[in-house]
Amino acid sequence: MQLRSILIPFLTFALLCGGGFFLIDFLESRSLSLPDLFAWLPYVLALIGVAMSLVFHQSRLIYPFCILAGGYYFALVTAPNGPDDTALGQIGFAALVLLLPLNLIVASFFKQAAILSPLTVIRVAFQFIQIAVVVTIIASPQWQDIAVHLHGRMLTEEYDHWTWLTQPSLMMVIVCALVAIVRAVMSGVPIHMGAFGIIILSTIALHYVDNSSTVIVFFSLALLNYIIALVHDTYRMAFLDELTGLPGRRALMSLFSVLGPRYVVAMCDIDHFKKFNDTYGHDVGDQVLKMVAGVLGDVSGGGRAYRYGGEEFTIVFPRRDTAYAMQHLERVRQNVEAASFALRDKNRPKEKPKSPASSQKQTTVTVAISIGVADKNKYQGNPMEIRKEADKALYRAKKAGRNCVSE
User: Fold this and answer.
1) What pLDDT, in 10s, does the model give residues 72-116?
2) Which domain covers residue 136, as residue numbers?
3) Do 217 and 254 fall into the same domain?
4) How many domains does the chain have?
5) What is the pLDDT of residues 129-166, one digit of tens each?
6) What are phi and psi of 209, to 5 degrees?
7) Residues 228 and 289 in one domain
8) H helices, E strands: number in the chain
9) Same domain, yes or no: 208 and 257
10) Looking at the DSSP assignment, which residues form a beta bridge with residue 341?
11) 3-state helix, strand, coil in the chain (%, to 5)
12) CB of 33 within 8 A of CB of 11?
């Protein structure tokens, strides 16, 4: 599920990156350059991103947009035609290519905070402190001594002779990009994949810093990539259930609006869930919901699982009939029953001891679900009315002894 959720952000990044190179190649093949007005495009996109972050109550995402806009500005200031031998080129640009990916990956770990909170003040102050330190070094008579370290080589010259980026900055980009991609794969959160995209796209812009059109294009694409990731992440929060990771009722209603004349709706309910919740506690109940959701999410046969609410789930089989859906629903029921659930011992320490006792016992319980099925071919009405028929079938499954599938 995690890999599927970052597939679209990755494809978006790949398309933007490929499109950027295609555009630059097109301009160069015809000896063209972007009009001067386009130099403002990254700033406009950054403002759009900031505004969207505020509207969607994602204030933590303001920082990457501002950092990218600042990176674009300083790229134009420190190396308009490529870094020269002055302090601005040797210190300013070298510091930019080192600090930009670092700040982007750090900002991606920021938590939500109020705009006027002390934490926000600290974050903003940290950005200005970095700028002040770099400006102070540029103005220092000893800037050449510091430049030696910023341009230091741990490997031979062949590893960086092809780019304006220094070896320390290349290593920083690799580390930050790896952190971003691993985090995206592990979490399945689109905005984390967006962080990977802006690190790579902004690095490409800095690699071609001596070409103003390329700088404009790739900083603009980096900002656009993050805006798309923001929209995707907002969609994810609106349509996915936070606890189980399954699409929620809003997503189900969206599917209902586009279903054709042939489909099957199944309502699933965890048997004795209230008793289970009261006996073992709500935390364990949440874990049971996650476990059941994980099984339902892997339903075969083209079924789509949704969390309807509480301990109820909905599975929809578009363009299918009951005979087809029943075999896959029965398999789901069996898989839930086979997935024994281990209870955490009340006396179990929060941290794993260095020498755990071998006599510790785990209590396992069996979780079961009942399923009610309704077919559009059998009942007349809209999808919500078919869902109500599936609810009635679910009630019949409960009356029949639970842990079964009923029409």
Assistant:
1) 999 999 998 889 999 999 999 999 999 999 999 999 999 988 888
2) 2-239
3) no
4) 2
5) 999 999 999 999 999 999 998 998 888 888 888 899 99
6) -65, -20
7) no
8) 15, 7
9) no
10) 365
11) 65, 10, 30
12) no
